[in-house]
Amino acid sequence: MPEKNPNPPYKRIATEEAWAPQELIKLYRQEIETKAIGEPGFHSLWGFFSGTSEKAQAHGRRIQDLGELRLKDMDDSGIDMQIISLTSPGVQIFDPKDASAMAIRFNDELAEGIARHPDRFAGLAAFSPLDPANAAKELERGVNTLGLKGGILNSHTLGTYLDDEQYWEIFEAAEALDVPIYLHPNTPSPQMIEPFLKRGLDAAVYGFACETGLHALRLMVSGLFDRFPKLQIMLGHCGEALPYWLYRIDYMHGHISVTGRYPDVGPLKRRARDYLLENFLYSNSGVGWAPPVNFVRDVIGPDRMMYAMDYPWQFVPEEVGELEANLGLDAAGLKQFFEDNARRVFKL
Predict the structure, then answer these.
(1) Which of 310, 313, 314, 301 is nearest to 344 (CA)?
(2) Is residue 89 reached through a cis peptide bond, with omega within 30 degrees of 0 on the bond before it?
(3) Which of 26, 96, 237, 263 is least surrounded by CB atoms within 10 angstroms?
(4) DSSP letters along 141-180, please?
């Protein structure tokens, strides 16, 4: 097994690392007991991770920690800094107004944790997407007052996607602030989850990519980036497979958009591929395998691909050494992937 370089000429910044405050975990457990919301994907995922198994208990300790346990895991993995965000689905399963109040509390708590270890932690602001005016205000407060580096959107909110213009205030704010929105996976929405559940395909194994890739394409096809051309959306997991589909997405959308076949699909100002190349950023979170990382670097561009571990959902301490050994990059390329892109994008 390759050993990580203990003193590389760069810092290793992990850009999609999860956290959950104790209050949120308590609320999740209440929902699992009462099923008041009845979101099947949430119950599949958090029903297990709120349980008593050794895996669930270890995960619970790690995801709630903003101190010594997290720092030790980072040190053991060779990670110098984490960009931390509220774990999926964040506040997005709760009533929108209540969720806005929660987001304020949780962003304050995250900022306090960052302030205790400012050389090791940075963070993204949570918000309530279906309360768009307050969501935009909270993103602005998170960036301008708390020093957070962008926003975290845990994909759909109880089956609602943000390609509808009534929710676009948050994207307008992100563009004005010049910060990215990280489009993090959620389990498939109630409309699409049923075929995934029986065979355990609803979460990270496949469902996350299907659901989040769908959301990203809905945003693109809606004309969001024509309205906000400088907006940057970040995708993890090597782009939720969209870079692999780049040619076909571009070809098919180009034909479909001029036929009038779909009332809500018209021509865009640029080719579909251009949005994926210019308005999306990418991390390898959860994909500690050189071939797809290099594919995204080759197809999208090395300046748009950066490192993430997906801690603690996928905690693999040896991942850094394996990637450094197998990516085939020189020192400058490794520095770009592990450090430089993240510093530029998140203004670290």
Answers:
(1) 301
(2) yes
(3) 263
(4) HHHHTT---SEEE-S-BTTB-TTSGGGTHHHHHHHHHT--
The two tokens of residue 322 are 């394996």
Q: Is the pLDDT of residue 217 over 90?
A: yes
- Rounded to an integer, what distance in angstroms lies between the CA atom of residue 31 and that of residue 27? 6
Report the C-alpha gap between 338 and 348 in whole angstroms: 13
- Cα radius of gyration (the chain): 19
Whole-number Å distance between alpha carbons of 212 and 183: 7
**Mean pLDDT, rounded, for 289-301:** 98
Residue 153 near residue 125, CB atoms below 8 Å: no
> Does pTM top 0.70 for this prediction?
yes
C-alpha of 137 from chain center: 20
Question: Rounded to an integer, what distance in angstroms lies between the CA atom of residue 171 and that of residue 264?
Answer: 20
- Label the pairing between strands 13-19 and 81-86: parallel
pLDDT digits (tens, 9 = 90+) for 10-48: 999 999 999 999 999 999 999 999 999 989 999 999 999
CB burial string 110-124: b at 16+ within 10 A, e below: bbebbeebeebbbbb
Q: How far apart, in whole angstroms, are the C-alpha atoms of residue 328 and residue 343?
A: 22
Nearest to 185 by CA among 142, 224, 150, 214: 214
Q: What is the amino acid identity at position 203?
A: A
What is the C-alpha separation between 217 and 220, in angstroms, rounded?
A: 5
Cα(222)–Cα(117) distance, integer angstroms: 40
Catalytic status, residue 340:
no
pLDDT range class, residue 4, cuts 50, 70, 90: confident
Number of H helices, E strands in the chain: 17, 8
Tell me the three-class secondary structure of 46-71, residue by residue.
HHHHCCCCHHHHHHHHHHHCCCHHHH
Rounded Cα distance, 249 and 254, in Å: 8
Q: Name the 3-class secondary structure at 183.
A: strand
Task: Give the Cα separation of 188 and 211 in Å (integer).
Answer: 5
Report the SS3 class of residue 334. Answer: helix
> Which residue among the candidates 163, 202, 310, 340 is catalytic per the annotation?
310
